[in-house]
């Protein structure tokens, strides 16, 4: 018992950073507008968290433009040093216009630095981007390059299409501005879906809470005495391991199927603007879903109907996924393609997560400590869920946020991929 308590305390310490950041997209974006007469314009969209990490700015996740403006020259100089545009016609100088705007998101704001490419009125057939910003400081960083206006490609109604998806291992790429590639855009949206589910800690913990009981079953009780039919090492906790692989796999398949159906429905409805819910409400319910699924592992709410939780709350997770597409600004003609690609990516991402966790659970299911471990992990998930719920429902930053941004806990947060 002492070892278990010590392990729980250590786990709480390591998982503390997870509490404060349910979503933390560690990526920058570059949007381009390509005009027949004015040439090429664009903007860098930098997450406020990157400003804190890379530049050490004390501006918080929701800074005002006035808070960022004193650092504008420093940030723009960094971007100039690490971003180079060129084409078959030569290199282009990035000229910042001086304009700063911001995009307010529930997991942190994006500060936008607007620019134009000098001597780009003679439009090339393609552009090459060499981009090194943020990768040296954070190897998990991503950069999404998208076109929102492109005369040569007939993109004139403010639609958005992905042109490049850059990472630490692939820091440069060439894309056509004469003929757009729908396939490249589709693949990039699949990557976005995978990336979002992997950094969406609330989505991951919801799945974890759902699949923890996949390898065990609740023991039946004697209707007369109220006790368990058979006594064993599992009697205290009321669980017994599944004897074969198939029942556990079918449980996982059922849970994932209902979760997928649910979030696909609402992802589609929200992205097509048929139904919209306030993000604060959606994010609060998503936080609550983690705790409820975990509580169900301790005291069953829907006996034998675990899929109900996966389906009902999967609907709200779908609204959460849709907010990502909305925040990225994908609209218009390519929305349907982006929607399908993003959803495919989400499914791939969650399958990978389950494939990594489920075999471990199945392997240790016969250990007498597994029921105890499942209960304590569920308690931990309830604590994390409660923290998120308070922050999101009341729109406040609890004290742990300050600890995360301190020099003490920052290395841990960075290690687990949240800073």
Can you tell me about this structure?
The chain has 419 residues and is an alpha+beta fold. It folds into two domains: 2-21 and 200-217 and 230-400, no CATH class; 27-185, no CATH class. 49% of the residues lie in helices and 18% in strands. It has 13 helices and twelve strands. The strands form three sheets. The protein has a six-stranded mixed beta sheet with strand order 5-6-2-1-8-9. A hairpin with a 3-residue loop joins strand 1 and strand 2.
Short overview:
The chain is α+β, with helices and mostly antiparallel strands and 419 residues long. It is built from 13 helices and twelve strands.
Structural class of the helix and strand makeup? Answer: alpha+beta
Low-confidence stretches: 1-24, 222-236, 405-419
Domains, number: 2
Helix-residue proportion: 40-55%
- Beta fraction: 15-25%
Biggest sheet record = 6 strands, mixed
Counted beta strands? 12
Element order, helices and strands? HEEHHHEEEEEEEEHHEEHHHHHHH
Shape: elongated
List the helices and strands and how they pair.
Layout: H1 2-20, E1 27-35, E2 39-47, H2 48-55, H3 65-68, H4 72-82, E3 83-87, E4 90-92, E5 94-103, E6 110-117, E7 126-131, E8 142-150, E9 161-167, E10 172-176, H5 182-199, H6 201-211, E11 216-218, E12 239-241, H7 245-271, H8 279-298, H9 307-328, H10 335-364, H11 370-394, H12 400-404, H13 410-415
Parallel strand pairs: 1-8
Antiparallel strand pairs: 1-2, 2-6, 3-4, 3-7, 5-6, 7-10, 8-9, 11-12
């Amino acid at each position: 018992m002492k070892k278990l308590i010590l392990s729980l305390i250590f786990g709480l310490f390591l998982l503390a950073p997870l509490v404060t950041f349910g979503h933390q997209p560690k990526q920058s974006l570059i949007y381009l507008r390509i005009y027949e007469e004015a040439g090429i314009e664009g903007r860098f969209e930098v997450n406020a968290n990157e400003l804190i990490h890379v530049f050490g700015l004390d501006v918080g996740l929701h800074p005002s433009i006035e808070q960022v403006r004193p650092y504008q020259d420093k940030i723009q100089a960094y971007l100039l040093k690490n971003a180079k545009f060129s084409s078959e016609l030569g290199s282009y100088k990035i000229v910042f216009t001086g304009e700063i705007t911001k995009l307010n998101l529930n997991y942190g704001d994006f500060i936008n630095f607007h620019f134009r490419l000098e001597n780009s009125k003679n439009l090339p057939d393609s552009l090459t981007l060499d981009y090194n910003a943020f990768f040296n400081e954070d190897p998990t960083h991503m950069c999404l390059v998208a076109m929102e206006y492109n005369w040569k490609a007939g993109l004139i109604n403010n639609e958005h299409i992905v042109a490049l998806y850059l990472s630490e291992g692939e820091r440069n790429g060439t894309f056509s501005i004469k003929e757009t590639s729908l396939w490249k855009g589709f693949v990039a949206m699949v990557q976005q879906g995978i990336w979002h589910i992997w950094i969406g800690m609330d989505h991951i913990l919801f799945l974890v809470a759902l699949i923890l009981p996949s390898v065990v079953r609740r023991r039946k009780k004697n209707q007369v005495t109220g006790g368990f039919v058979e006594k064993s090492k599992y009697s205290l906790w009321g669980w017994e391991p599944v004897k074969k692989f198939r029942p556990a796999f079918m449980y996982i398949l059922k849970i994932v199927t209902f979760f997928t159906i649910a979030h696909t429905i609402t992802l589609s409805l929200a992205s097509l603007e048929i139904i919209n819910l306030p993000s604060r409400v959606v994010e609060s319910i998503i936080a609550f879903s983690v705790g409820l699924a975990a509580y169900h592992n301790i005291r069953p709410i829907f006996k034998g109907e675990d899929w109900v939780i996966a389906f009902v709350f999967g609907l709200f997770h779908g609204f959460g996924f849709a907010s990502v597409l909305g925040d990225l600004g994908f609209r218009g003609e390519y929305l349907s393609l982006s929607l399908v690609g993003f959803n495919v990516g989400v499914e791939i991402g969650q399958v990978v997560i389950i494939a990594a966790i489920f075999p471990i659970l199945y392997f240790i299911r016969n250990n007498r400590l597994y029921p105890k471990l499942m209960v304590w992990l569920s308690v931990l998930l309830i604590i994390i869920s409660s923290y998120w719920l308070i922050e999101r429902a009341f729109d406040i930053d609890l004290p742990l946020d300050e600890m995360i941004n301190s020099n003490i806990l920052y290395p841990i947060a960075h290690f687990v991929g949240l800073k």
